[in-house]
């Protein structure tokens, strides 16, 4: 084929019939994709164009913009001096772009040059579950299919609706419009599409998209649940194949995770276990960020017949049924065990280990967590005592408590520390699903990070859990101690000695026992006690670095809310930029809950 003279390049371009992708290949200057297949290139300048991009027409008609034709704009042209975003992909166009100057409408070349059939017509289809025509499209990026709600990857055959901006897998559009199903033998199920969330009879989850439904019986199946695979062979996760078991209107207890399931399960006849579909692929071995050893999945935990203790999950502190699945630590002497749902519900807390047996675990041990010094929460052993033939710590200083703890083997009831009245024997654990009030400030703790006691209703916000035990204020010459309740019901003691407002007896406070003064926490610490004026902050809504300032005399208007910037604000450091904004207007919720203590929240 003769050399091509393209208007976007000053050298002739050589044609290559088949360019194989490799690390020597470049990217097409038209569509920004890796060059492969038929293409044109300039070896001197490393300039590449796919054949499709090189032959792109100067003007097209497109179903996404039916009112006007779209004209081709090349990089470097007068009209491409400013950045433009593709109307479909929503990101900046780097290569060729088609545009309508009247409507300020832009399309990336990948979206503009739609696949066509042998007659040259744009490929489109009509579907019973969607009201508008759907067009075949070459996706460049990641989008969610409106049919199955899974991700459409870059090379997946897909269609889009330009009227409502939805995307579909080609395979989802090829689903049968009516089926017969063994879990509902009375009527056929018809394919529907809906944006509302409907509960699936199989998985008991609710989401929109394509689903099969019997309208008279109000029975619904997600398309992904309608035909689960009959046999699953995955020796990476289990040694034997799992076989599908459909039991309409029957429930079961999953042997892998211990939770109840409905209708659809998989059985392993060799191991005599029944599990959820999702539990077929549970990882055999994982490494948690909060435990030094790798932990293994088991379908039941074998323990000594003399061991009658109850086993608590070390994450949620709920009871673990050892007759069902859990994750446990196989290291001798380590009794770490957790629920399956607790171990894998947050991917950032664990990673999967590729090991064949527990004998290979040693290479995954965390040496920084294995020493007694790093694993122990004991700050200092004050006194040792003899118990039988063993010598143990009798009195210790512990990181979790401000007073010394004394060993007792006769613990009964709920004993409290005489210094702070908190239960000595109770530990607080992080609970991101807690719904209730904070025991310190008596405010709702369900929307922020909270710690709670597994044995009672005691719970703390993160900010309340990290309050200093002692503090100083100019109104009192002594150090102030954090107190948890009033020592009596004397009404005059329930007034703050700083603001002279009445205190809520349900809230913690600071006090001076010497002067008999009591104060609100926020009056002692201040609203922004952990933010230093002059420190810098990077805000994604502004291109320059911002500085914390406390405005006292000159109140500029906030760029966000328009109100005067009294108290704490952020000011732009860039010379000539007059951007200023309240901290409260832009502070992320997680930062607000960590560093701001405000009684009015």
Describe, in plain words, how this protein is organized in 3D.
The protein is mostly beta strands. Among the domains are: 14-54, Wheat Germ Agglutinin (Isolectin 2), domain 1 (2-Layer Sandwich), CATH 3.30.60; 178-226, no CATH class; 231-280, Wheat Germ Agglutinin (Isolectin 2), domain 1 (2-Layer Sandwich); 283-364, Wheat Germ Agglutinin (Isolectin 2), domain 1 (2-Layer Sandwich), CATH 3.30.60; 470-525, no CATH class; 536-595, 2-Layer Sandwich (Wheat Germ Agglutinin (Isolectin 2), domain 1). 8% of the residues lie in helices and 33% in strands. It has 11 helices and 40 strands. Strand 27 and strand 28 (390-398) form a beta hairpin. The longest helix has 7 residues, at 589-595.
Provide a brief overview of the structure.
The protein is mainly beta and 601 residues long.
